[in-house]
Design goal:
single chain; Phosphorylase Kinase, domain 1; Aminoglycoside 3'-phosphotransferase, Chain: A, domain 2; 2 domains; five-stranded antiparallel β-sheet; three-stranded antiparallel β-sheet; 51% helix; Thiamine kinase; transferase
């Protein structure tokens, strides 16, 4: 039985259901297999996925973050959980794209939601909770790539040297509990409000990483970055904050590049990771060129 078929079987056979259900696949997940299930006319979103220690994805942490975000009111309620399975209320709405984030009015709404996450999540999330420090993660990835004799191993000394310089450029940080995977598609607009979903990589971090990831994932330009920072901090950004954001943007792209390099070796998902690595490496180089490190 393939992984997809096993995920389908699990999604349809939960004792949580009141009767027979017909799970419908939902596209977009790489670390999960997702379904929409209607039970007695009520729609649910089902995430099937085990721990992925290679990438630091631990489902106890995702569950704690999902529940904290629901309690905060920024993410749908968790209605059922068991090992490898998470069931949430299904949000009817549209997922955002890069162009949506670049719209000034939408960017302000998105940043407001991110700020709500950063100011509220740490008060709600239950222990234990993970840390997500991008520079630790890329060093971990470098070790995995060396051990696997990856074809990218020759790049690692240069990439790690640049990671050190980026970390120095970020400097001291104030800890918040962040989402750490702010892809446009992780925001849902239901027509009246925004929701933030998918807490696989949640953990304590710097606000600048979430903002840098939001910017890099949406390909924001310099003036849009300034608007994002002003909306988040409530003031015109100073040069130090701009420099920190540029460093975190580059770091987020380095992490995505190396995540893909590691996935080339370790993932069983049917996905063109080699092309994804090349795409993100090019974007990292462009972001690096804009950093003053």
């Amino acid at each position: 039985m393939t992984y997809a078929n096993e995920a389908l079987r699990r999604a349809g056979s939960l004792e949580f259901w009141s009767g027979p259900v017909d799970p419908q696949p939902v596209s977009g997940g790489i670390t999960n297999t997702n379904f929409m299930v209607r039970d007695s006319g009520r729609p649910f979103f089902v995430r099937i996925g085990e721990d992925i220690p290679t990438h630091g994805v631990m489902r106890f942490n995702e569950l704690a973050a999902s529940r904290a975000a629901a309690e905060l009111g920024i993410s749908p309620p968790v209605v059922h959980a068991e090992p490898g399975v998470l069931v949430l209320d299904f949000i009817e709405g549209r997922t955002l794209g890069e162009e949506d984030i670049r719209d000034p009015a939408m960017l302000e709404r998105v940043v407001g939601l991110v700020r709500e996450c950063h100011t509220g999540m740490a008060r709600n999330v239950t222990a234990p909770a993970l840390m997500f420090w991008v520079f630790h993660i890329v060093r971990h990835y470098a070790r995995l790539l060396q051990e696997a004799e990856s074809p990218h191993a020759g790049r690692l000394p240069d990439l790690m040297a640049r990671a050190d310089r980026l970390e120095s450029a970020v400097g001291p940080v104030e800890l918040i509990f962040g989402h750490n995977d702010l892809l446009p598609a992780n925001f849902i607009d239901d027509g009246s409000r925004l929701w933030l979903i998918d807490w696989d990589y949640a953990g304590f971090n710097s606000a600048l990483f979430d903002l840098g990831g939001l910017s890099s994932n949406s390909q924001l330009e310099v003036d849009e970055d300034d608007a994002m920072l002003e909306a988040y901090y409530g003031r015109t950004p100073d040069d130090r904050t701009r420099e920190g954001l540029r460093a975190m943007k580059a770091a987020s792209l380095l992490r995505e590049t190396m995540w893909s390099m590691v996935s080339e070796v370790h993932s069983q998902v049917d996905f063109d990771f080699a092309s994804y690595t090349d795409e993100n490496l090019q974007r990292f180089e462009a972001a690096w060129a804009r950093c003053s490190v």
